[in-house]
Amino acid sequence: MSKRLIIAIDGPSGAGKSTLGRRLARALGLLYIDTGAMYRAVALAALAAGVELTDDEAVAEVARRASIKLEGDPDSLRVRLDGRDVSAEIRGEEVGRAASVVSAISDVRRELVRRQREMGEGDVGVVLDGRDIGTVVFPNADIKFFLTARPEERARRRFDEERTKAHEPSFDATLADINERDQRDATRDDSPLKIADDAVVIDTTEFTIDEVFQLMLQTVRERESQATDDSTDLNDSPNSSNDEAGGDANDRDDS
Ligand code: DC
Hints:
The protein is an alpha/beta fold. The chain has a single domain (about 5-220), classed as P-loop containing nucleotide triphosphate hydrolases (Rossmann fold, 3-Layer(aba) Sandwich). About 55% of the residues lie in helices and about 15% in strands. The chain has helices at about 15-30, 35-50, 55-65, 95-100, 105-120, 135, 150-165, 170-185, 210-235, 240-255; strands at about 5-10, 30-35, 70, 80, 85, 125-130, 145-150, 200-205. The strands form two sheets. Strands 2-6-1-7-8 form a five-stranded parallel β-sheet, with helices on both faces. Strands 3-4-5 form a three-stranded antiparallel β-sheet, covered by helices on one side. A hairpin with a 2-residue loop joins strand 4 and strand 5 (about 85). Helix 1 packs across helix 9 and helix 3 packs parallel to helix 5 (about 105-120). The radius of gyration is 19 Å and the shape is globular. The protein starts with 5 loop residues before the first strand and ends with a helix. Bound molecules: 2'-deoxycytidine-5'-monophosphate. 2'-deoxycytidine-5'-monophosphate (DC) binds next to helix 2, helix 4 and helix 8.
């Protein structure tokens, strides 16, 4: 990999972001940052501290004090909250719901976005998955994907996943929960879930994970070779001006 790539993957829950983000990071040798896990960790910390989730200032203080570490390879990512491995605990239903609530608090977002930028600006390229990566956290990301799927399909995937765990959820309840969370994530005032203008949108409803993965990988490869061609053109052309270079960059952003 020639340069430090920043790849943003946004979209609603159940669209396949984390599975595909992990695979992409592994295939390209990049760091993988699950930003949803960070909101979940703040939610868990707030619940454990007995803080009212409606008390914005108290939750924001919990966020500022929390030590949240994402460790390990993309496939075996562990989440540590104040030194404790909470990887399994943050996946519970209650924490998921609480994460959706605390992620609407501006001061919580400000704190986590600051940390995400720091993590993403290290020496290695990164894949970040979330809701606001391409729009807010890294608006200049090299490649932005927006993954989506029909709510029924996203609910089916989550339902299948939940069924393999201990309890037996109902499909209707899962679908209602997905719809409620989508609604909250897409209508909050601060950084609502939305598609960046220059994102590659993939509706995964009718595709397998493998098919979507191949499509994403191909998009990354194309962008990389385009970037290499552009820089070779600029170096080769003695008459190339900044204006022309600016034009190339804009063309690339729009593609
Ligand atoms: O992707 P997830 O289900 O683990 O995310 C948990 C919650 O955090 C979800 O309600 C959306 C929110 N979130 C967010 O607002 N911004 C992000 N970058 C990532 C997640």
